[in-house]
Fold this sequence. Notes:
Layout: E1 3-7, H1 11-16, E2 26-30, E3 51-53, E4 55-61, E5 77-85, E6 87-88, H2 89-97, H3 103-106, E7 112-114, E8 119-120, E9 131-136, E10 139-145, H4 153-163, E11 171-173, E12 181-182, E13 188-193, E14 196-202
Parallel strand pairs: 1-11
Antiparallel strand pairs: 1-2, 3-6, 3-12, 4-5, 4-11, 5-7, 5-8, 9-10, 9-13, 13-14
Amino acid sequence: MKIICVGRNYAKHISELQNEKPAEPVLFIKPDTAILPNRNPLVLPDFAQDFHYEVEVVIKINKLGKYIDTNFAHRYYDEIGLGIDVTARDLQSRLKAKGLPWEKAKAFDNSAVVCREFLPKTNFSDLQDIHFSLKKNGITVQQGHTAEMLWQIDELVSYISQFFTLKKGDLIFTGTPAGVGKMQIDDVFTGYIENREMFRVKVK
């Protein structure tokens, strides 16, 4: 199982980090060791000082696929979830400045918070009309709407499958909206799809 993450898929998030709008999806991978075990606290490692939260809609692949046509991409997933792409922002900035890969800042152990249960996509009448949000200590810090994605879910599945064979159980993090910020010890983060709580995690 692997986690494929999409960067820069929301225009306002691109602006807040002063990044350039990409001509095609930005992809990076997290290994399965990046998944934070359910109900475990998120212990921040000591190799960086500035860890950021990035809430994202996550889809779970349900069968093997390669070179998937966009028109058939919907057949390759049937569950929708939510997660946090935890980012060591200061380390990422140093790596980017040197033109080096991001893996150490994005793919470290426990850097992927994933909801305990996924929702059937049949729960949603339109996958381009899903609202999601993240609360930090009870205060909403991120709000997203899938209509604002630069590349929609089916487009992402098709694009990703050009480079990586998708396997059952793979997760795709579809990008984060604006509002990312710093994680601190004792923070509690709660993620929602619409009004349904999808995860709750404490930082230690």
